[in-house]
């Protein structure tokens, strides 16, 4: 319906924009009115009664919002009546009787404490909308109610539980305590109007109530509360509304508890407690218990006990109190001599936040018992400074100087007793009446007596010859019953007076002592002895003179100790003096009675702490070829700074070539030495001393050089040729007319030298070469020409095995007119005259000598054969080297051969020379300058050794840096390998030349 009404109103506003509205109509109705109860006439009250007169159904309607079904209107008459139950407390609920003015879309309005209105709209067709407000009047239909309440016999509602309030007894009169009241759903005068309080015991003067509408309720304290007098009040709290004639009421049980405050202090039952005990009362014994009470309750009445402040805090050392029970007990042993009367404040304290206290006094009297023996204290009159313990073996030490008169006071004896009265009265005496001492009472003071111990004789130590101190016993007793006795042992020492000076005797004034040089610091060296005729001499020893800080001395005993390190090799003896000072035994401050001086010499004994040191040189020399032990090579000298066997040196060598004398160190050779075999020897020599138990040693290396002796002759070597036109061939043997040459048996034939016609104009021929196994000047070789002979060109043959056969007798010539040897370069040269060399075609036999430059020079002679070719060239030379026995036949054959090939050769040479320039520029091996090298000589098929002369000629024509060559196309594909010792081309490690070719071009590769 609400949705329909809302839509209708919106529709009406849109359809009927000119609806007229009248003022609000307010009606009143009591809650709980019966259905049909007349409320009012809307038509009449809105001025629309003329419509009712028409007699038709006008169609008056109500448009309610949230509150529906409470009212109805007659459509014809416009009469508004009750249609449902109206419960004001439901429609306008209140809480605790508290109302507030508010409105909402629910159509309910509460604009005062007692006003409850229901608003809605009445529609009077066609266009009147009337605001209707129905005020619901309250009736007294609800009684007040306390929480958890029920109904009592009087018809009032009574709470099933009691409401509890706590109030401190310390609050002042007029103090108000807020309490919770009842609630009433009715409003206005029908709500709660009054409260009353009744106490069970009829006490209505202690509390009152103050109620301020609508809900403030306070409990007022009317008189002073006292917890100790009454702890709780019980009664009823009654709430009534304003209903007439009989109000409705509710009753709540209430209990008011009075809380205690600390308003009472503890109270002892006595102002003074007294107790008398014996000083022998055992520790932990309870002697009395004090008791106090407190009227407060709980914690406030719980008491604790303690001692108060006393004048003498020592009281707390003897007694203690149990803080809970108040029992007083003994903490430590009592002594009536110390304290026999105690007055102790005792305090009881309650448990309040600010505690209250009560106090009393405890008086304790301690009775003495004779439980303390007398005490004795002995004090010496004199006491030596060196004495640190006055009691020795239970005897108290006293001293008296010798020669003191009779009656000299030795010590003071103090005595007393910790007991009091007769138990504390003490007297003393010496137990031995015949001793050399007496005891005299001097004075008495508070609780003690003083006695003087004196001498009865005069003591002289030197005369009495006392070997031990004098002993006596003092006995003291009290007057108790029974008596207690104390005895004290005393030892009297007669002190020697320094009557005689200390001195050194003759034997004591010079002290010599030996110690090892490796003595460690702190070692005892010696004890210095001195003499003093006094019985108890007091001597002091001091070191004097400069001893390098190596020693110190104990001033009292005279013991000398080391305090530094020694080295006998640096300082073998140490000298110093000891000063003896004589002083008084009782007072070290008084001047010395005298002094004396003793000389001390400390001799350091050697220990083997140094290794031998080689002093001599480490390099020696001996000439070779000397007989064994013939010459002294050298002598080793070593030094060891130690003494005796520690410094005795021995030499040890395990070498088999040389002999080293272990004592003298002299070195000899055991065998003949050859410098050319071993030029230098290195020997490790062990140098050791003879120290015991362990010797020290050093290893030194010496060098022995073997000197050279000119014992080797020069050895000739193959000479070196100096240009390309020279052919050099070794000569193994020389025959003369087929027989062995007796002249050259002792002379070495070195070489055959063939000088071609092309090189014949060169003056330098060979460089002479020889070696010598010796060194220096002994190996410095010089060459000279001894003599020479000449052979005609056809007078020799040279076989393939290098045997030279001379078939004619030589001509004696002055060889030095033809040849010379340069003294600097050792080059053999032909002598020239105006640029023309003197040697002619033929063979020159040159006798040479190679000499060294030793003091006794050695030499070796040799022969060199130098052959000069004739102008006929190679053919002539060829004939000359063949067998002379077939000269004519060979000559004819050669001439025929020359004639047969002269023309082809000439043609070939022309072609070759034309091609030679072109090929030589390219480095082609076919390009050779000597026409004597023929193709058939090179290509003999397979592997063939090339003749040396041809090979050399071929090499001379090449560039040394070329590694491949072209051969003319007419050579076949064969391979030629040859070997050579001498070549102008550098072939490296393996001077091999290999020809490999094909039908057109052959390559020569150097490998």
From TrEMBL:
For membrane topology, the record states:
Single-pass membrane protein
Task: Spell out the InterPro entries in the cross-references.
Answer: Cadherin-like_dom, Cadherin-like_sf, Cadherin_CS, Cadherin_N, Protocadherin/Cadherin-CA
Single Gene Ontology BP term? homophilic cell adhesion via plasma membrane adhesion molecules
Gene Ontology MF annotations:
calcium ion binding
User: From what superkingdom does this record's organism come?
Assistant: Eukaryota
Note whether Cell cycle occurs among the keywords. no
Keyword Signal found: yes
Its subcellular locations are: Membrane
- Where is this chain primarily localised? membrane
Its keywords, alphabetically, are: Calcium, Cell adhesion, Glycoprotein, Membrane, Repeat, Signal, Transmembrane, Transmembrane helix
Residues in domain Cadherin? 21-146, 159-268, 269-376, 400-503, 507-614, 614-716, 753-866
Give me the segments passing through the membrane.
888-910
- List the protein's name: Protocadherin-9
In its UniProt entry, the species of origin is given as Hymenolepis diminuta
């Amino acid at each position: 319906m609400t949705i329909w009404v809302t839509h209708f109103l919106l529709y009406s506003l849109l359809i009927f924009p000119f609806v007229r509205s009248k003022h609000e109509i307010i009606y009143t109705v009591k809650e709980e009115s019966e259905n049909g109860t007349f409320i009012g006439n809307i038509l009449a009250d809105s001025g629309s009664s003329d419509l009712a007169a028409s007699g038709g159904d006008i169609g008056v309607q109500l448009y309610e919002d949230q509150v529906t079904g409470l009212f109805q209107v007659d459509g014809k008459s416009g009469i508004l009546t009750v249609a449902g139950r109206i419960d004001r407390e439901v429609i306008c609920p209140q809480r605790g009787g508290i109302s507030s003015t508010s409105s909402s879309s629910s159509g309910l309005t509460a604009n005062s404490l007692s006003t409850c209105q229901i608003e809605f709209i009445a529609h009077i067709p066609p266009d009147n909308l009337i605001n209707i407000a129905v005020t619901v009047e309250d009736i007294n239909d609800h009684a007040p109610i306390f929480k958890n309440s029920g109904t009592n016999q009087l018809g009032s509602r009574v709470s099933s539980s009691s409401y509890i309030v706590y109030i401190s007894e310390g609050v002042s009169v007029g103090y108000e305590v807020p309490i919770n009241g009842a609630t009433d759903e009715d409003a206005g005068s029908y709500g709660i109007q009054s409260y009353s309080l009744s106490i069970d015991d009829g006490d209505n003067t202690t509390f009152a109530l103050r109620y301020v509408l609508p809900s403030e309720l306070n409990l007022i304290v009317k008189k002073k509360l006292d917890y100790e007098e009454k702890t709780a009040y019980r009664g009823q709290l009654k709430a009534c509304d304003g209903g007439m004639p009989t109000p409705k009421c509710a009753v709540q049980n209430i209990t008011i508890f009075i809380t205690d405050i600390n308003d009472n202090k503890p109270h002892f039952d006595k102002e003074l407690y007294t107790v008398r005990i014996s000083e022998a009362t055992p520790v932990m014994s309870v002697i009395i218990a004090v008791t106090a009470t407190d009227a407060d309750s709980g914690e406030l009445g719980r008491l604790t006990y303690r001692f108060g402040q006393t004048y003498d805090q020592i009281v707390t050392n003897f007694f203690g109190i149990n803080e809970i029970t108040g029992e007083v007990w003994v903490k430590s042993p009592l002594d009536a001599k110390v304290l026999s009367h105690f007055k102790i404040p005792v305090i009881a304290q309650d448990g309040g936040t600010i505690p209250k206290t009560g106090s009393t006094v405890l008086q304790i009297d301690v009775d003495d018992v004779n439980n303390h023996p007398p005490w004795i204290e002995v004090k010496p009159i004199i006491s030596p400074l060196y004495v640190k313990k006055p009691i020795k073996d239970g005897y108290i030490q006293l001293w008296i100087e010798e020669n003191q008169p009779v009656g000299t006071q030795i010590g003071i004896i103090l005595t007393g007793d910790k007991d009091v009265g007769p138990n504390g009265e003490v007297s003393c005496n010496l137990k031995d009446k015949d001793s050399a001492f007496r005891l005299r009472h001097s004075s008495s003071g508070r609780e003690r007596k003083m006695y003087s111990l004196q001498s009865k004789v005069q003591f002289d130590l030197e005369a009495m010859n006392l070997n031990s101190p004098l002993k006596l016993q003092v006995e003291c007793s009290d007057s108790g019953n029974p008596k207690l006795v104390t005895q004290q042992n005393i030892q009297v020492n007669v002190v020697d007076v320094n009557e005689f000076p200390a001195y050194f005797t003759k034997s004591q004034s010079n002290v010599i002592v030996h110690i090892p040089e490796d003595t460690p610091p702190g070692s005892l060296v010696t004890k210095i002895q001195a003499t003093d005729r006094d019985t108890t001499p007091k001597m002091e020893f001091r070191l004097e003179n400069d001893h390098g800080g190596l020693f110190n001395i104990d001033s009292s005993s005279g013991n000398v100790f080391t305090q530094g390190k020694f080295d006998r090799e640096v300082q073998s003896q140490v000298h110093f003096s000891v000063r003896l000072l004589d002083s008084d035994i009782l007072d070290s401050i008084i001047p010395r009675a005298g002094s004396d001086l003793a000389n001390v010499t400390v001799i350091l004994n050697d220990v083997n702490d140094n290794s031998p040191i080689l002093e001599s040189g480490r390099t020696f020399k001996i000439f070779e070829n000397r007989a064994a032990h013939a010459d002294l090579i050298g002598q080793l000298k070593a030094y060891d700074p130690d003494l005796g066997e520690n410094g005795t040196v021995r030499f040890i060598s395990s070498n088999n070539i040389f002999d080293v004398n272990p004592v003298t160190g002299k070195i000899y050779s055991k065998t003949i030495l050859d410098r050319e075999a071993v030029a230098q020897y290195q020997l490790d020599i062990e140098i050791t001393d003879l120290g015991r138990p362990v010797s020290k040693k050093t290893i030194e290396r010496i060098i022995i050089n073997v000197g050279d002796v000119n014992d080797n002759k020069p050895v000739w070597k193959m000479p070196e040729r100096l240009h390309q036109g020279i052919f050099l061939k070794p000569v193994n043997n020389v025959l003369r007319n087929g027989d062995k040459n007796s002249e050259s048996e002792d002379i070495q034939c070195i070489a055959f030298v063939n000088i071609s016609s092309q090189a014949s104009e060169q003056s330098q021929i060979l460089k002479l070469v020889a070696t010598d196994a010796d060194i220096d000047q002994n190996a410095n070789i010089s060459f000279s020409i001894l003599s020479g002979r000449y052979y005609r060109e056809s007078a020799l043959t040279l076989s393939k095995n290098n045997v030279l056969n001379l078939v004619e007798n030589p001509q004696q010539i002055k060889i030095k007119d033809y040849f010379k040897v340069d003294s600097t370069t050792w080059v053999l040269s032909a002598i020239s005259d105006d640029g023309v060399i003197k040697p002619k075609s033929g063979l020159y036999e040159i006798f040479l000598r190679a000499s060294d430059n030793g003091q006794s020079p050695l030499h070796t002679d040799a022969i060199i054969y130098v052959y000069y070719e004739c102008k006929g060239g190679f053919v002539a030379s060829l004939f000359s080297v063949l067998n002379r026995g077939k000269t004519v036949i060979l000559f004819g054959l050669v001439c025929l051969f020359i004639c047969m090939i002269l023309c082809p050769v000439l043609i070939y040479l022309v072609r070759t020379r034309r091609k030679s320039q072109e090929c030589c520029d390219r480095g082609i091996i076919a390009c050779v300058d000597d026409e004597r090298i023929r193709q058939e000589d090179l290509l003999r098929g397979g592997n063939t050794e090339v003749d040396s002369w041809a090979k050399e000629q071929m090499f001379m024509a090449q560039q040394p840096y070329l590694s491949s060559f072209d051969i003319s196309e007419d050579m076949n594909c064969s391979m030629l390998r040859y070997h050579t010792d001498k070549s102008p081309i550098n072939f490296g490690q393996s001077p091999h030349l290999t020809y490999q070719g094909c039908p057109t071009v052959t390559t020569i590769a150097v490998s």
